[in-house]
Amino acid sequence: MYLPTAHPWAEGESLGQYLDRRGVSRRDFLAFCAEMSAILGFGSLMTPRVAAALAQQKRPSVIWLQLQECTGCVESVLRTAEPTIGDLVLDVVSLDYQHTIMAAAGDQAEGALQKALKAGPYVLLVTGSIPLKENGIYTTIGGRTAREILEEAGKNAAAVIAIGACAHWGSVQAARPNPTGAVGVSDIIKDKPVVNIAGCPPIGDVVTATIVHFLTFGRVPDLDWDGRPLFAYGARIHDQCPKRANFDAGQFVEEFDDEAARKGWCLYQVGCKGPATFSPCPIFQWNTRTSWPIGAGHPCLGCTERYFWDLMTPFYGRLPNVGGFSVERTADTIGLGLAVGATAGVAAHAIATAVHQARQRRKAEAQAEGGSHGQD
Ligand code: SF4
Ligand code: SF4
Ligand code: F3S
Fold this sequence. Notes:
By secondary structure, the protein is of the alpha/beta class. It is built from 17 helices and nine strands. It is globular and about 60 Å long. The structure holds iron/sulfur cluster (2 copies) and FE3-S4 cluster (F3S).
């Protein structure tokens, strides 16, 4: 378990010097920079620039607030199964406050937060929503509400990164009827851009790459209509999915224990929301690229989309057949549709057409064979 106080930065020390002192080899550091360049979509030519920019950094301070949430996002970002890129980023920055994993507690922890806030500027990471009902009493830390803490922390923040659906828009707490009045970070911090690392939980590498982008270029990455970094959320799951060939061929799982499921066919009929969801899950995956929901045979629930608990349910229901967009539409235009269109807004006419065509094809094939097992 990483302890933020275990490896203090020396006064005036650069990141390069700090990593040398920690025994991180140049080879490992360059491998990390190459991985980040790849995730950010820059290609290998950018690796030296990323490495040079990071090595010169002097104690980039990070404050990580956990508000109304389940700690799943913290687990996802830190995942300590083995030393990974996610671990290395904790060497790249000085994580000055993170109340779950820091050694300090109580007054000592609050003192560390106040010290880091005053020292600013810093990168502010936030997991969890902000409950506003009943004057915010549903989440208090050190006697102060989540809203008060966030407003104070936002003032000296050089960049604000909301990690996970809770910090993005409220997630499960904000599902109807939203009993605590939960909102996302961007509903509170309005005077600077808030980067939304969407997902419940999101992929840790996206958080790491977003921080690296800020440290390298001095600004946050380009964002889509909902504040999500385009390098990660610029493409639909459906367009990156290894089961797409099954979808196009009309090969669908109808029940979770049928032969099609055993063959690993497309999960659209059992509720997959991949056609309406923008996320890098098929590419980045989880736990050092071990797997991801669809790879494990479970339909995508659409967890990177705003209001998915209300808009993407029932989770095992097929996306409805209403006219709308085609595969050529962008994240921005589909996203706007999602924001106003509820579940109907995520339906894909193209999908319904593909399913219909596939069934017709199978019917014709069945008739040609003299059988009658084609489906309507
Ligand atoms: Fe937990 Fe999901 Fe909220 Fe992350 S976004 S804290 S995993 S409920
Ligand atoms: Fe993949 Fe789901 Fe699209 Fe099927 S519907 S191809 S499982 S994303
Ligand atoms: Fe979420 Fe779907 Fe990825 S449920 S984790 S966006 S596959």
